[in-house]
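Researcher: Let's do a round of design. I'm pasting the structure tokens now; please hold your answer until I've finished.
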């Protein structure tokens, strides 16, 4: 199945693509299902299961569900309007949305964190019910938030797990080996093949403007993060650090004794700026998830601001190559922290960033594949253990280190000829198997790892 660049890179809202964006999308989809039915809902009820229950409050899942039921969607999210809607609900206990009769919703009774029942399809499960005036269920749907803002119903998930047949695109590569073979046979780069696949369904201006918009939102999240300080919400009292670090780095420019390793701080600060914005509920781009949203923007800013040969026009090639790799990982393994741990989030983002960086530095398709493999290989086994369920610690710093690994991986790949021992496909399959074997408490439940040991450190 072909995944568009705009499915890999979605405009969204923090702090989590799977726990905030996904539930909001699911709730909005339920409204559409209700509109298409003959039923009139007197009340709506939602239960959250698995990781959505265990870390839902830290990820603002409850808020996301309420706003989704009020008609909000991530790509056009307006925070001021959202706050006004939440205030109205607190006063009235009811929600009005276009195309439906007013329905009751009491978050204290109708939003249930079910810690006991884990739904069979995925760790991020939720059930939405519409009830009539007598309290009988008249419509029910189960949704799974499978990572990166992707949402599937129970029926869709069953179909999605079957054999994937590529759609009618010029280069229907299903794995890294096919991607390299098609590139060598066509003489195209990975970015060019991805462009040709995209242009099959979109006009040239639509595709160009869409990619430009993705980078614009990414870059804006960096700039906002570098300009803001204060304490992040959620109760951990984590202080924003990107602004202060950036100010220090700016002040050190031109100093004769400037240490070469300081460039790592520049890479990290760009990523941290994005993830501090994400943690505060700001607008970011899933890349491929919100929890890993800083890796790719940081690597692009490093390229533009610190590589002498950088060309802004090549940002599109960076994102296209990154999306090609992200699509392979999504299809053949997972980008969900609740499914495979953080190797599927920051690990995937680092692989994508390494591929994009290698692409814009002139890497061959084999070198681009090698760069992605190196970056992913050295995130294998990484757990997802956010303290208090918040996308803050260790997530913010982890994005900085993921970006550094991406740059290093691309650099190493460019020093070779593309031939290497472990293929990207083998690495992706290893990540999938590792995720299956990983103890559930290390997969975005906050029941293990740093989430339970930080107080003793």
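Researcher: That's everything. Go ahead.
Model: Designed sequence:
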């Amino acid at each position: 199945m072909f995944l568009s660049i705009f499915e890999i890179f979605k405009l969204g809202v923090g702090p989590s693509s799977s726990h905030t964006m996904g539930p909001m999308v699911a709730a909005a989809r339920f409204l559409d299902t209700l509109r298409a039915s003959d039923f009139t809902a007197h009340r709506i009820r939602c239960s959250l299961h698995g990781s959505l229950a265990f870390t839902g409050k830290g990820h603002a899942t409850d808020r996301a569900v309420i706003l989704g039921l009020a008609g909000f969607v991530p790509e056009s999210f307006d925070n001021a309007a959202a706050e006004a809607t939440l205030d109205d609900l607190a006063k009235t206990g009811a929600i009005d949305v276009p195309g439906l009769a007013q329905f009751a919703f009491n978050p204290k009774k109708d939003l249930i964190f079910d810690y006991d029942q884990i739904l069979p399809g995925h760790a991020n499960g939720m059930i939405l019910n519409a009830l009539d005036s007598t309290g009988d269920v008249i419509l029910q749907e189960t949704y799974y938030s499978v990572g990166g803002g992707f949402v599937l119903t129970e029926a869709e998930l069953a179909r999605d797990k079957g054999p994937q047949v590529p759609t009618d695109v010029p280069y229907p590569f299903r794995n890294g080996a096919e991607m390299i073979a098609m590139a060598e046979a066509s003489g195209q780069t990975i970015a060019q093949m991805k462009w040709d696949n995209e242009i099959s369904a979109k006009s040239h201006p639509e595709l160009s403007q869409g990619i430009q918009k993705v980078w614009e939102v990414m870059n804006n999240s960096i700039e906002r993060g570098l300009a803001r300080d204060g304490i992040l919400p959620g109760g951990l009292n984590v202080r924003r650090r990107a602004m202060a670090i950036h100010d220090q780095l700016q002040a050190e420019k031109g100093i004769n004794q400037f240490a070469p390793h300081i460039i790592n701080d520049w890479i990290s600060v760009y990523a941290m700026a994005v993830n501090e914005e994400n943690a505060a509920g700001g607008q970011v781009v899933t890349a491929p998830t919100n929890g890993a949203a800083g890796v790719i923007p940081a690597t692009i800013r490093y390229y533009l601001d610190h590589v002498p040969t950088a060309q802004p026009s090549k940002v599109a090639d960076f994102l296209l190559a990154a999306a090609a790799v992200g699509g392979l990982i999504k299809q053949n393994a997972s980008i969900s922290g609740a499914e495979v741990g953080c190797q599927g989030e920051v690990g995937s983002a680092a692989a994508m960033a390494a591929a994009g960086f290698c692409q814009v530095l002139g890497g061959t398709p084999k070198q681009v594949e090698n760069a992605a493999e190196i970056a992913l290989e050295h995130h294998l086994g990484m757990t997802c253990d956010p303290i208090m369920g918040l996308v803050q610690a260790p997530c913010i710093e982890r994005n900085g280190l993921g970006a550094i690994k991406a740059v290093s991986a691309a650099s190493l790949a460019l020093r070779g000829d593309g031939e290497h021992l472990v293929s990207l496909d083998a690495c992706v399959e290893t990540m999938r198997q590792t995720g299956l074997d990983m103890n559930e408490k290390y997969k975005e439940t906050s029941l293990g790892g740093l989430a339970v040991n930080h107080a003793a450190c």
